[in-house]
Write a structure and sequence with these properties.
The structure holds two protein chains of two kinds. By secondary structure, chain A is mainly alpha-helical. Chain A is built from twelve helices and four strands. Chain A has one domain: Formate dehydrogenase/DMSO reductase domain (Formate dehydrogenase/DMSO reductase fold), CATH 1.20.1630.10. Helix content of chain A is 79%, strand content 3%. In chain A, β3 and β4 form a beta hairpin. The longest helix of chain A has 32 residues. Chain A is globular, with a radius of gyration of 20 Å. Chain B is mostly helical. Chain B has one domain. In chain B, a hairpin with a 2-residue loop joins β1 and β2. Classes of the chains: A mainly alpha, B mainly alpha.
Chain lengths: 331, 438
């Protein structure tokens, strides 16, 4: 694998996507647990969730913007292809993003508390739907069904994403985000009862992620054959899958033993490696089967400036994020 | 509905909606920080209450701005994939930089909104200042990208494709400085006036509330200074348009004939078929003077350009007139307020001025919306001026009317809710009497 500027930029894009899943994804997961809060501690669960995500969700959301701007600056052809072919799921996802963010802010700042339950419902339902649509989009990108002919999607505007494999990725994404959120939330409260509530949710979703991973893998045989091939044969792909398995098992055992810090580290590793395993299996394709990191890359001068901007931006950003998470005790 | 029209309308409604929140996100943090700084300096708790109160409104506006901005960043590709494929590598840079500015803004807004009890007061103030600075930087980067669409630079055109791409030269395009200057000043003027108007309204009902008195001074200082200098930046920008987009300038002015010593038109309705602008008051030589610093300079008229390259002249001209009128009224009211302050009058005791400020409060946003109509509609039929037509950039997606109607409905709904919530916030304003105590 040649390490050229376009490959480095593609890697930074996947890092951003990983951080979006780990941070922004968990915020959606928080919304899911807000929706599914029940029992006599439902109100307190919701309060912990709101307190955990309020100061950070907007900053976490920007990782998605970064993914998009890297994509359209560094790989304009990939962006235009994805935006054309997946117009419908992307638009639906955007509607979810708009309602999730607005409703959350409305709920936090509405002077009339009796209405805030309605906003809470809008917030939590859109937190449930948006990750599914994100997953559908990613699944469709990986499926190999997106081919452009004279700027028009050969398979139409519906078929590439309205099938079993993208939907399985959508559900998998949702459960993964809910799992991350539950694991994080065990560390967001000192209340032992609430810790137990979130621990149970983390354990249940941990098992669900395992089962869904198998479903997605099986469906990829026909749903995304190139990825399946990439994951099947090569030693590094098998190694990644083995590590993901060990990490998810460790996270599960750590949750059983109430070692929440350890569980969080394992869950982060697990989700990151799932994304990286997928990205490496798909390499060098940005959009299967015709758009690659190389044929979609912007000219060298743009890529160099973009790389400089990303590195300089990281120097600005990482200390700021460190400070944010320190202030709100998330490290 | 034609797909192209639907796409254009969806883009227009998305920008028109987002720009209100983006502009508030630029200027509100500055006002919050001024209030908080006054609190640290004077220890007068009214200022602290004000900073906290404004920050709640800012939180709502920022959240809606963040999500509607996300929509726009996707819509660039969802609606105009060929534009992004063509231009992404040229003007992606300012968007990337904007990404980092937006990160900084979101991070420190989190610290600001939720850190009142967690960080020390100076760090808190600095966080607010970082929000204000990075908010301004975001606005600058995005406007630079738009300026590039008006005055594209940083590439060579070979066989209809861009080669020899230089993203830095693209960012330093001819309109970049003047357009960003005009937009940023507009942001402070519009937000300052909107907030001043609201507090003026509340002062008319409750003249003794020190909370609104202090708020009025800060909002009017920010909005007023910006409004007074805005005509100058408008003049700088108009000169750049005259040099780079003479056809657009002709549309601003409803100037059909190419003449020396062209007049400036106040009002008027362009009649495109009759090729003249009717019912306008003409100020002789003024357009030549303003555009080229020479009363006898030649101003190109619309007739000099092929008809198919004309923007919708009537819309552009009327929008331009509304923008200029709104701006000039705001500048005049600002000057009057400043004179009152210099003459050591308490401006909140002048009910006439308070009423004027209430009436003026939407003017800044009206000027911003019409200003965007001027620059965006005035650029048509081009998406990249002189290079790529809007019609060539649009997506082949067939059901655009549906997405247009959907987003319009969502944005109208959100706008109503935001207004409702802000009204409730203002109704819950704290009451402080003259002693500075509750």
């Amino acid at each position: 694998m040649a390490v050229s500027t376009e490959v480095i930029i593609a890697a930074i894009m996947i890092i951003s996507l990983t951080l979006y899943a780990l941070k922004g994804g968990a915020d959606y997961g928080g919304g899911v647990w807000d929706l599914l809060a029940f029992g006599k501690r439902a109100k307190r669960q919701r309060e912990v969730i709101a307190e955990a995500i309020s100061p950070i969700w907007e900053a976490n959301h920007v990782w998605l913007i970064l993914v998009i701007v890297i994509l359209f600056t560094g790989f304009p052809l990939a962006f235009s292809t994805i935006a054309t072919a997946l117009h419908i799921p992307l638009t639906l996802m955007l509607i979810g993003i708009v309602f999730r963010g607005s409703a959350f802010a409305f709920r936090s700042y509405d002077v009339r508390k009796e209405e805030s339950r309605t906003w809470g419902l809008v917030f939590s339902v859109s937190s449930l739907i948006t990750p599914v649509l994100l997953g559908i989009t990613l699944g469709a990108i990986a499926s190999g069904n997106i081919t452009l002919e004279n700027g028009v999607v050969a398979a139409g505007f519906i078929k590439p994403w309205l099938s079993l494999f993208p939907f399985s990725v959508g559900i998998f994404t949702l459960v993964l985000f809910a799992y991350l959120a539950a694991v994080y939330l065990t560390l967001e409260t000192d209340d032992e009862e609430l810790k137990e509530d979130f621990r149970k949710r983390a354990l249940i979703t941990s098992i669900m992620t395992g089962l869904l991973a198998i479903v997605v893998y099986l469906l990829s045989g026909t749903g995304a054959p190139t990825i399946r091939e990439g994951l099947g044969g090569k030693w590094w792909a098998l190694a990644i899958q083995a590590i993901v398995f060990l990490l998810s098992l460790s996270a599960f055992l750590a949750l059983l033993k109430r070692r929440f810090q350890l569980a969080r580290i394992c869950a982060i590793g697990q989700v990151s490696l799932i994304i990286w395993g997928w990205a490496l299996a798909q390499y060098p394709y940005l959009v299967e089967p015709s758009v690659t990191v190389f044929n979609a890359a912007a000219p060298a001068r743009t890529l160099n400036f973009l790389l400089i901007a990303l590195v300089a931006g990281a120097f600005l950003l990482l200390p700021s994020f460190y400070y944010l998470f320190r202030v709100f005790r998330k490290l | 509905m034609e797909p192209l029209l639907a796409a254009r309308l969806q883009m227009a409604i998305s920008l028109a909606f987002h720009i209100i929140f983006a502009v508030a996100g630029i200027a509100m943090p500055l006002m919050m920080v001024i209030a908080e700084w006054k609190w640290l300096k004077t220890k007068n708790e009214v200022y602290l209450a004000l900073a906290k109160h404004w920050s709640k409104g800012t939180a709502i506006l920022f959240a809606v701005g963040a999500v509607s901005g996300t929509v726009l960043s996707f819509e660039l590709g969802l609606l105009w994939p060929n534009f992004m494929e063509w231009a992404g590598s040229i003007i992606g840079m300012p968007f990337s930089l904007e990404g980092f500015a937006f990160f900084t803004e979101a991070i420190f807004l989190g610290v600001y909104l939720y850190g009142w009890k967690k960080v020390n007061p100076v760090v808190h103030l600095v966080s607010g200042a970082l929000v204000a600075v990075s908010g301004a930087a975001s606005g600058i980067f995005v406007t630079i990208a738009n300026a590039w669409m008006n005055t594209p630079a940083g590439f060579e055109l070979v066989g209809g494709k861009p080669v020899d791409i230089d993203p830095v030269a693209a960012m330093l395009n001819p309109a970049a400085f003047s357009q960003t200057l005009h937009m940023m000043i507009a942001a402070y003027a519009a937000t300052g006036f909107a907030v001043a108007g609201i507090h003026a309204f509340l002062l008319l009902k409750n003249p003794k509330n020190v909370f609104h008195q202090k708020a009025l001074y800060i909002a009017l200082a920010v909005g007023g200074v910006a409004a007074v200098i805005q005509p100058l930046s408008g003049d700088i920008l108009a000169k750049v348009v005259a040099r780079n987009q003479p056809l657009k300038l002709a549309a601003f002015e409803g100037q059909f004939e190419t003449v020396r010593g062209a007049p400036l038109r106040v009002g008027g309705i362009p009649d495109v078929d009759g090729m003249e602008t009717k019912y306008a008051i003409e100020i002789p030589f003024a357009l030549s003077l303003l555009a080229y610093n020479d009363p006898d300079a030649e101003v190109k008229g619309l007739k000099d350009f092929p008809r198919e390259l004309w923007p919708p002249v009537a819309i552009v001209h009327v929008a331009f007139q509304i923008m200029v009128a709104a701006g000039l009224i705001m500048a005049a009211v600002s000057v009057y307020s400043f004179v009152s302050v210099l003459r050591r009058k308490n401006i909140y005791e002048s009910r006439a001025l308070l009423r004027a400020l209430v009436l003026c409060s939407p003017l800044g946003f009206i000027a911003i919306e019409t200003g965007w109509i001027v620059t965006e509609v005035g650029r048509q039929p081009w998406i990249i001026y002189g290079v790529l037509k809007t019609a060539e950039a649009v997506t082949p997606m067939p059901w655009l009317a549906v997405t247009f109607i959907t987003f319009t409905a969502i944005y109208i709904f959100l706008a109503v809710i935001v207004v409702l919530l802000l009204v409730r916030q203002f109704k819950a304003s704290p009451e402080y009497l003259d002693s500075g105590r509750r």
